[in-house]
Write a structure and sequence with these properties.
The chain is mainly beta. It has four domains: 152 residues, no CATH class; 125 residues, no CATH class; 121 residues, no CATH class; 53 residues, Membrane-bound Lytic Murein Transglycosylase D, Chain A (Roll), CATH 3.10.350. 3% of the residues lie in helices and 72% in strands. Strands 14, 15, 16 and 17 form a four-stranded antiparallel sheet that branches. A three-stranded antiparallel sheet has the order 1-6-5, with no helix packed on it. A hairpin with a 6-residue loop joins strand 9 and strand 10. The longest helix has 8 residues. It is elongated, with a radius of gyration of 31 Å.
Length: 511
């Protein structure tokens, strides 16, 4: 006969995969007829974007675009260096063990290595290693039994836990084409050499069934000026963005976990404007909004009947009951002597943290590896440009709290910044790494379904037993085995603390 139950329904993450997948992508870039021939490659910056993802069994198909910014030397009376910007599409299949089609995925691509050559003056060959930082999660529905709706008395072992109950997980795209005027100091803009775009200052505000997102895109532009002394300059611009995402059932208990991924960014000069120079930024940002509530739930962890046989099916599920995120800023300062050639000035620099490996051992988090700093230098006499790379050893560690055997923990460098001061041939370098530690409480649940009761066979059950406690035994398991109750065992044996029985202890069990 079926037994009805009263349940609590929850949505939890039951799988979390964090994996970095490396792919080498090759591209031949043709110098257009409008540009002079290339004599030497000075610098190549590669920026990858992912704008389409398809999750398959143990694989992920990704496609997007790669922006190439190339500075090259030319044989020209006016300019000795020129810039070339181009973008190409790509499509790759990533091997990710455990990936399944119904998973939620967030992928952040970064360029780790660039190898380039100049086969001839009109062709530039670039081979770049792209690291796809992949995070996958799967949401599962769990029904926990609160109580039984039946006449027969059932012994219940109750449990109380805090759960991160996912109410809704929604992705949205912020796409726009924004025109802005270059700052006054950049009115001498002639040619684009490099662009870096970074999402900063993000915040949100919830309202009735909506959440308003806002932030800024920090744009750094390296350009060749139109004056004849060929000065390479740098200018920054902050472009605001905002969007409204509709969500159901927002209330005062709602919490939000929001991630932003730049899916595409392109910047170009508007050539039809002659009075003042303007640029158009064409961008696309993917926003992943997870709305959840912290909820304490009391549920039945185990059960049995003293008088009836209970038959049921069990589905075993590992699920994340709670997730905590901690951010830590790590400051690194390095002074490097005699690194800049004589009569050279530092034009620009960028930081690459892809060679730093984050890891967790016990409660100790570590960052080990090299921070690579790429410099763009100019000879003050010849005005020629040169690129130079330096490595800074990183060996940092810090303690993490709230880690136990039932937690799944991982860390990642989510943001970085760098400032460099030149003092003659010396450099004073200051780096700041923002490290995120995510700690998940993982629990095993027996999801019980299709409960039916039947006649209890008591032919193998003695009315009186002497039980010798073994390692791992509990009074609950003993009572369940002999179809009696914990209270009866406690009273019969005058046990003071039901949770403190010892190995070898003899217990009288009367059914």
């Amino acid at each position: 006969m079926p037994i009805n139950t009263m349940n609590k329904s929850l949505k939890l993450n039951n799988v979390s995969i964090n994996e970095n997948v490396s792919k080498w992508i090759e591209q031949d870039i043709i110098v257009p007829d409008t540009k002079p021939d290339a004599v030497k490659i000075v610098n190549v910056t590669v920026t990858p974007y992912v704008n389409n993802v398809e999750v398959m069994q143990d694989k992920i198909k990704v496609s997007g675009t790669i922006n190439y910014f190339i500075i090259y030397k030319v044989d020209d009376a006016t300019f000795s260096n020129r810039g070339l910007f181009t973008t190409y599409p790509y499509s790759e299949v990533l091997d990710v063990n455990g990936a399944m089609p119904d998973m939620n995925v967030v992928i952040k691509p970064i360029c780790k290595n660039v190898i380039y050559s100049l086969p001839n003056e009109r062709k530039i060959s670039v081979k770049s290693e792209i690291i796809f930082k992949t995070k996958l999660k799967q949401i599962c529905d769990i029904n926990l039994i609160n109580n039984f709706d039946c006449e027969n008395e059932i012994e219940c072992k109750m449990c109380k836990k805090n759960f991160c109950n996912i109410i809704q997980d929604k992705k949205s795209i912020i796409a726009s084409k924004e025109e802005f005027m270059l700052p006054k100091e950049a009115e001498d803009f002639y040619e684009l050499l490099n662009v870096e775009a970074k999402i900063i200052n993000t915040e949100y505000k919830e309202s009735y069934n909506k959440i308003m997102l806002k932030g800024d895109i920090d744009i750094k532009i390296i350009y060749l000026s139109e004056n004849h002394d060929e000065s390479v300059k740098k200018v920054k611009y902050t472009l605001p963005f905002s969007a409204m995402v509709e969500l159901d059932n927002i209330n005062e208990s709602s919490k939000f976990d929001i991630s932003y991924i730049m899916q595409d960014f392109e910047l170009r000069l508007n050539s039809d404007i002659t009075t003042s120079k303007t640029m158009t930024a064409d961008y696309q940002i993917e926003v992943d909004v997870m709305m959840y509530e912290d909820e304490e739930v009391e549920y039945i962890d185990d059960f049995y009947s003293q008088n009836r046989e209970l038959n049921y099916s069990v589905n075993n599920v590992n699920a994340v009951t709670n997730s905590m995120s901690f951010n830590k800023n790590i400051d690194i300062r390095e002074n490097i002597a005699n690194i800049i050639p004589e009569d050279s000035r530092l034009l620009d620099y960028r930081l690459d943290t892809s060679y730093i490996t984050p890891s967790i051992s016990g409660k100790n988090a570590k960052l080990e590896g090299q921070a690579k700093v790429y410099l763009l230098l100019q000879d003050i006499n010849t005005l020629e440009l040169e690129s130079k790379g330096i490595e800074i050893i990183v060996n940092e560690s810090f303690e993490l709290d709230n880690i136990s055997e039932n937690t799944n923990a991982y860390i990642d460098i989510v943001d970085d910044s760098i400032s460099i001061t030149q003092n003659g041939a010396d450099l004073d370098i200051r780096m700041q790494l923002e490290v995120n530690a995510n700690i998940e409480d993982v629990n095993n649940f027996n999801i019980i379904e299709n409960i039916e009761d039947d006649v209890l066979d008591i032919s193998n059950l003695d009315s009186i037993n002497i039980y010798v406690v073994k390692s791992g035994d509990t009074l609950w398991e003993i009572a369940k085995k002999y179809k009696t109750s914990v209270d009866k065992i406690v009273m019969t044996n005058d046990i003071q603390d039901p949770d403190a029985i010892s190995v070898g202890q003899k217990i009288l069990v009367i059914r």
